[in-house]
Amino acid sequence: MYVAVKGGAAAIESSWRLLEAQRRGDTTIAALSVAQIREQLSLAVDRVMSEGSLYDPELAALAIKQASGDLMEAIFLLRAYRTTLPRLGYALPLDTARIELVRRISAAFKEVPGGQLLGPTYDYTQRLLDFALLAEDTSSATSPAAADDPQNASQPADADPGDAPVTVPRINQLLAREGLLETPSPDDDEPAGDLTREPLMFPATRELRLQALARGDEGWLLGMAYSTQRGYASSHPFAGEIRRGFVGVELVPDELGFAIDIGDIEVTECQMINQFNGSRELPPQFTQGYGLAFGGGERKSMAMALVDRSLRADELGEPHVAPAQDQEFVLSHADSVEASGFVQHLKLPHYVDFQAELELVRKLRERASQESA
Question: FRET partner for 346 with CA separation of 20 to 30 A, picked from 92, 94, 257, 327?
């Protein structure tokens, strides 16, 4: 039971002023601008956009500033703003095969058509604090390594600088060509559901599950993905391909009747490859898990792909042996906005509820004392 309480308006307004003072911090230090957050905290911006279900780096950076860096609060702010926007139409499915690559790697094949592009990544850093950043100012914006060769990590080993391919063939096509990898085709006759307009119902179709995972909390998905690798699901994954880059968004206006390109967005896509022993209907082959996130959401897209594959247990005839295979459990607890709201509502007054339970415990203790006497 929820109890509504009135009053305390002055205290609430005072709390707002204190919150603003906390957000601003020491006024002798220059204020952090939205542009700085957008450019220098880009991975945080990308996460807020993904889980906020709105691709707008400037608004995501604004939400991060307003939330004092609390990403869950920023996601809540952006998601709430998104609900006020009119729906002008639906874009066509992204053709990520035509992505303009920033990064592209495969852990399944060493030599791949188009080469492997390391791009910007923390994979090869030593995870040591760089104390030089404490003295960094606007005049030393680039590191010595980057100044030596700003493109050295974004080119294939055998490529000339500036000659990186814009598009390259998908790695899964290599296995599919031999019939070793499943090639599921979407049902074009059935329109995909829209999780932003309709509540999630179970059992959910794969496209709805992917929508829920795409805006699910990264930490939750990472934990679920980790559980599958520790043995809590039949999973032995390989990172078939991870792509990051810019892809065009196309829309078909009703008045035109044909697709037009309305701009590019940055995404990270992951295709996991898993071994499958086969069933009565399907021969032994590799199956896929898929993940996609806005910007440089590599960890998010990898975790999403692992969880997506686990949630396909029913489709592939696999036994349910782990939480990550239970779509109601995974998806119902994945949304950070819902989870945060339900946990934090406990801070609201529950005076009547608690007094009722307090009285009940007193009566139970009194009865137990009388019976033992």
Answer: 327
